[in-house]
Amino acid sequence: MMSIGLAEMVTYLPISSPFIRFASRFVDDAFGVAAGYNFFVFEAIMVPFEVTACHMIITYWSSIVPVSGIIAIILVLFILLNVFAVQWYGEAEFWLALGKVLLSVGLLFFTFIVMLGGNPLGDRFGFRYWNNPGSFAEYYKTGSLGRWLGFLACLIRASFTIAGPDYVSMAAGETINPRSVLPKAYNGVFYRLTSFFVLGALSVGILVPFNDPTMSDAFDKDLPGAAASPYVIAMDRLHIPVLPHIVNAMILGACFSAGNSYVYCASRSLYGLALDGKAPRLFTKCTRNGVPIYCVGAVLLIALLSFLQVSNSSSVVLDWFVNLVTASQLINFSVCTFTYIRFKKALEAQGISRDSLPYKGRGQPYVAYIALTATTVMAFVGGYTVFLPGNWSVPTFLFSYTMIGVFPVIYFGWKFIHKTEVKKLEDIDLVTGVAEIDDYTRNFVTAPPGNVFSKTSKVLFD
Q: Which CATH number does the domain housing residue 188 bear?
């Protein structure tokens, strides 16, 4: 839902970091600042999350290396890649991303084959685990209420995993022929991610029961087992040789790649805020290679939170990071939808028909209102378990609700200091930059694919 409104704004005016800058342009400068810092925190916290995940995956092979040692090694590698080898970042991430896609597709095929009996045990288990122990797990309570709480817990975790349209928009200003490419990109991201998420969740439910002891031990007792991967657990249970190690290694590579990407993206987000005068000027300093060195340093300082694993279990620390990131992500989505609502109202106030836009989403503004309501409610519901009897936990509460408190503090603080005002609908700038992109689009000439790789990419992704 959020992607529809974002696509409409970004294809109309494709600029870099659009949803952050649109928040300033269509709502209030202070709103844009709060959105920018929220997005920075979201990306920065994902770094220690991925470091923690890497440690959990490595325990599949051995737990002999101290937790602090693994964390230190990963962080040093992040430093080397983001400070001294940043020129290879783009190409490396392309191939790593391709590996992630192949892994995802391969695991879907694996699920289909083994559920039909294509495994060393000849076990044609199909949807067995949907009947025993069942498809809905009880959570905290028994009966219908317990199953509802279980569903709600899954919904909260799903809120953590959903991302994509906001990342597509980040590259809008550098996209070739954006008004043609971006609508396809938004639709592609939505349908492909939805397919992978739905089919992936379906596969996990087919392969492993929700009460699997190995998976429960990995999460509840922090015991090294199959690194908490349901796919690897299923492979081990079916006595499939070698493949579990390959899959686990690929998952480890995916987590490491994601962590490295978040270091890069978070540092550039902070750098952008500094260039706009919304963060200390110190963060504008770059090395000779163009690396915003102090921004990278700030992100890696936040990454030191991964050392929380030393005194707490990895699964608990992961849960803390998930709670913080989920709240930040949902706030980000709320910002996007609210900004779109303001954009649409400004169009109406200034007599600009949505029919004149290069891309027009369906069901607006109702879709935007539904998305705004849903994301806002989910942001507050995310840490509900701490309020259940006997479940109060200060760290869990703080990680679940810190950003909900920080966002308005940044907004009102910036508003008070800089005396910003919410822009009137009639005064919102819907013109600057539009003529240039109109002219660019009219004169753009599509170049034919130059090689086999380009032709294949065009067939697969256009």
A: 1.20.1740.10
